[in-house]
Design brief:
Helix 1 packs antiparallel against helix 2 and helix 6 crosses helix 7. The protein is of the alpha+beta class. The chain contains seven helices and nine strands. The longest helix has 14 residues. 33% of the residues lie in helices and 27% in strands. Strand 1 and strand 2 form a beta hairpin. Strands 1-2-3-4-6 form a five-stranded antiparallel sheet, covered by helices on one side. Strands 5-7-9-8 form a four-stranded mixed sheet, covered by helices on one side. It is globular and about 40 Å long.
Length: 173
């Protein structure tokens, strides 16, 4: 577990992912130890966040869920605010890719920055990690600002294979 001033970052487990992806809300809340937002998460969001199907996550949870955390508020009602995920364990080159999300009602309060910064610092402290990468659509100003506040440097851009358009590429060492 990682603690920040306002967040408890609880490691993502296979039981949490299975409960969320199979629409077992009460089980998911029990496993994470906090209430889930009404609109978060769903199977599509989880598959997009982990870049993997439930079957792929089940086949190698240690690799697929490496460094992934659920953001829980430390004050007020115990509730899930979002998550920070790494799209898998470090590659042979020592790199990981981070992604993050905060449920709509909790956005614009600095939670994404606080949670992402803590998880990225944790990742960079691991001996197998030398570089953290991130991408965000060029039109997504709030996401770009999260990365900049977390010390990421823009290193390039590329076209997306989806409707997202241009993706900006960032790195932090």
């Amino acid at each position: 577990m990682i603690l920040t001033d306002r967040l408890e970052l609880v490691p993502m487990t296979l039981s949490i992912v299975e409960a969320v992806m199979t629409n077992r809300r009460e089980d998911a809340e029990r496993h994470v130890g906090a209430s889930l937002p009404d609109t978060w998460p769903g199977r599509a969001l989880v598959e997009r966040a982990f870049s993997a199907s439930l079957e792929a996550i089940r086949a190698d949870p240690a690799r697929r869920l490496w460094g992934d955390h659920v953001m829980i508020a430390r004050t007020g009602p115990r509730r899930v605010l979002g998550s920070v995920v790494f799209h898998g364990a470090p590659g042979a080159d020592g790199s990981v890719e981070v992604a993050y999300g905060v449920e709509e009602d909790s956005q614009r309060n600095g939670y994404a920055t606080e949670g992402t910064r803590a998880c990225v610092e944790w990742a960079l402290a691991q001996t197998a990690v030398r570089l953290v990468r991130a991408t965000t659509p060029s039109w997504h100003g709030p996401s770009r600002r999260v990365l900049e506040k977390c010390g990421f440097i823009r290193v390039g851009s590329r076209d997306s294979d989806s409707m997202l358009g241009e993706l900006l590429e960032f790195e932090r060492r």
